[in-house]
Amino acid sequence: MSENEETSNKPPPPDISPEGVDRSLIRWLRSLTIDERLQYAQDHANAVLQMREELEDPE
């Protein structure tokens, strides 16, 4: 059996590393364009600001 055949029979690495890092999230984020990454970050920042505002003034 060749080396390539041996490595192709190995299962893929787990999505969670021994250090607790979720590799699937890293792969997903790296699949985005720079603009998409920035938009994702901006959307979350806006959500945090909105939650803070609602906590300060819950009408």
Please characterize this protein's 3D structure:
The protein has a domain at 20-59. The chain is built from 3 helices and no strands. It has helices at 3-8, 23-31, 34-56.
- Assess the beta-strand content as a share of residues: under 5%
Going by helix content, strand content and strand pairing, the class is mainly alpha
The whole-number mean of residue pLDDT values reads: 87
Number of beta strands = 0
The arrangement of helices and strands along the chain is HHH
Write the layout of secondary structure elements.
Blueprint: H1 3-8, H2 23-31, H3 34-56
Keywords:
59 residues, mainly alpha, 3 helices, elongated
Q: In summary, what is this structure?
A:
With 59 residues, the chain is mainly α.
